[in-house]
Amino acid sequence: MDPTDRAPYLPGRRALLHRTALAAAGIGLPVWLRHARAADLPRFALGVASGHPGPGGVVLWTRLTGPALPAQVPVHWELARDERFGRIVARGSQTAGADDAHSVHAEVHGLEPAHEYWYRFVALGQTSPAGRTRTAPAADAEVERLEFAIASCQRWDHGLWAAWRDLAERPPELVLFLGDYIYEYATPALARVARRHEGGPTVTLEQYRARYAQYKSDPLLQAAHAMAPWIVIWDDHEVAHDYAGEQGERLEPDFPARRAAAYQAWWEHMPLPRALRPVQGRNTLYGRLDWGRLARLQWIDDRQFRDPQACPRPERGGGGNVVDRRACPALAEPGRALLGTAQERWLAAGWSLQHPWNLLAQQTLMARLVRPPAAGSDGVRVWTDGWEGYPAARARLLSVLAERRVPGAVVLGGDVHASYVAALRARWDDERAPVLASEFCGTSISSHGPPQKRLDAELHLNPHILHARGDQRGCIRFALTRARLEADLRAVADPDDAASAVTSQARFVVEAAQPGPQRA
Ligand code: FE
Ligand code: CA
Asked: I need a labelling partner for 507 at 20 to 30 A (CA). Which of 2, 28, 254, 493 fits?
């Protein structure tokens, strides 16, 4: 066994990015990516990706592009121990078909656990750029350390993606993408933005495919995919703002067809196994993975199975602000679900008492968020699209953590375009109540955030929230050992500059022996 395989996963010389500046932008990119720019490789202009790692396998992804693609194209892939592909350990081929937008989802099995690999594709006389990936450790392995990152909300026309460059320069072992990979909107005609969405709002399969192709043309996103395996879940904008189950925000009768098109396009563009290809517009994407004996990771879907948001505006679906809860009894209905019955049961049964850490990758802020009262308010203001709008479902989830004494529960989220660090308690207003979980909600990669003034005004109303920043874009990097979780909240200095500096906004730790985040 290669001794480097057991070393902590710090980027070694093999993986170090050569900081040769891209001529115009001054962006540090790996040499292999610089040589593999879209103009040189029209068949692989969207890059490569890997995902859903297991102890002996991983999914390899690409999508063929370019003019005059035959309906069926044979694609070969190879996987090696080294980036020069001198030691190839697995090979295979798959047919990329027009029905799935010529996407490739190659499932590689029989690999070594906890090993680094390099992969690439060959089709139509071209070889793709190489990607790096890594298998998960064996379920019973003693793992000393896991480095991972969470990210969400990368609206194309809101900024450039220095956050991805920062991540690709020091790639973690695993990236959890928590939703809003694309946004379905047209860019407003008068918007003064660095770059624009092509075309109008996405509704049809072809439009969603084109939107993913636009996002995936970004070299920094490609670099982040090419340097680490991802586990992906969706939130609303992969389909449409604030949808719930099969209900669109405008209650449009043909919404299920739009959702089905969006789900298909999402699968086509993500490193997901074939088993997750949607069937009749449905897709059971929630899942779990044990990272050796160190952590159980579970990921869930808060959109497909949820009940509609409480008390929408007349003739509308979607979320909104409830200023007087007495006027919205639906909020308190005990049966309302954010995850749906089957998923909620699955999650309740899935927490591990054998692992020191239980990580939950989900979409949005879970902590109670009391907002300053508005006129006519009963004292709080409730945003109905998030967990705050499904308080019974949130209480059920937290009560399972309490009853089963789940160790090391950490809730990871996104969606709100702001960084929040919070202690989740059984009783929010009681600082002596036991902490049931630590929450890290990451800011957006690029989507605009809420005014910092508002977040500052909220802080004193929410003593369980330790940190709230909406003014910076970025992601969160974590280093996990049996004893502690370290979080580094990354912040982009200039969201309109792909070469922007990216620094630490804050650092927190969670000690395994003492639940709840602490400022580091
Ligand atoms: Fe978002
Ligand atoms: Ca969202």
From this structure: 28
